[in-house]
Write a structure and sequence with these properties.
This protein is mainly alpha-helical. The chain contains five helices and four strands, in the order E-E-H-E-E-H-H-H-H. The structure holds flavin-adenine dinucleotide.
Length: 202
């Protein structure tokens, strides 16, 4: 099994063929038809955990980006002062801090409200963090030029790993679907409340 052109077997991802496998009944977890519940229990904290690690990757990428930008000159200036690089650095820092607060809020919601009630928060961070972190790593690669895609920095591997995270534990679109749908339903129920009030008033 290759992930982003890297051979992942046997330590990472692999294809497993189940050929005529029989599993004893007493090995069943939780109960018949309840497999999805098990995966749901794992997915909430798992997604938050992925986002925490992604923020660490963003910190690393920004650190490398700035260090490269101040240590290399082109056209008589440090790279950081060329083009829109100051703003790229500023936006990355602002977004890392915003992501950190969002993930903290999602984790707090999970502690206080529980898995089910906190799920929209979990979907929000999973929709936002890997996509933005991918972009920050991409910008760090750009600041390094050819070095950024070589084996001399960890950036290429970091990018591949973040990019797959936009699929693993659900693609971005599905997380946006949950967040958007929850927003629309809340608006619809408040519209219902208003129309009920209007009927009552009339
Ligand atoms: C490195 C890696 C590790 C993984 N690890 C695990 C794991 O540990 N456990 C596990 O269970 N799975 C794991 N997965 C699988 C992952 O959860 C699925 O790949 C992912 O949910 C997408 O499903 P799919 O590949 O079948 O694509 P599809 O379901 O075919 O989706 C393809 C594309 O269609 C679009 N799409 C799908 N649904 C919607 C929608 N509702 N609205 C809008 N667009 C949509 C999206 O763009 C999506 O990327 C892993 C995947 C990768 C790449």
């Amino acid at each position: 099994m290759h992930v982003f052109a890297e051979d992942h077997a046997p330590h990472g991802h692999m294809h497993i063929v189940f050929d005529n496998v029989r599993v004893p009944k007493e090995n069943m977890l939780l109960g018949e038809g309840r497999g999805f519940e098990i995966s749901q229990v794992r997915l909430g904290p798992g997604r938050i955990h992925h986002c925490m690690r992604s923020i660490g990757q963003a910190e690393k990428a920004l650190d490398l980006l700035v260090k490269r930008g101040v240590s290399r000159e082109a056209f008589g200036k440090q790279l950081v002062w060329l083009g829109g690089n100051v703003e790229i650095i500023s936006r990355a820092r602002i977004d890392i801090e915003a992501m950190r607060l969002m993930v903290l809020k999602a984790a707090k919601a999970m502690d206080v409200l529980g898995n089910r009630e906190a799920r929209v928060w979990v979907h929000m961070v999973k929709a936002m963090v890997p996509e933005r972190v991918c972009q920050i790593i991409d910008q760090a690669i750009q600041m390094h030029g050819a070095l950024g895609v070589s084996q001399k920095t960890p950036l290429a591997k970091m990018y591949a790993s973040q990019r797959t995270l936009r699929l693993a534990d659900g693609p971005d679109e599905v997380h946006h679907l949950v967040v958007g749908r929850s927003e629309i339903r809340a608006a619809e129920s408040s519209v219902d409340d208003v129309s009920e009030t209007m009927v009552w008033r009339s």
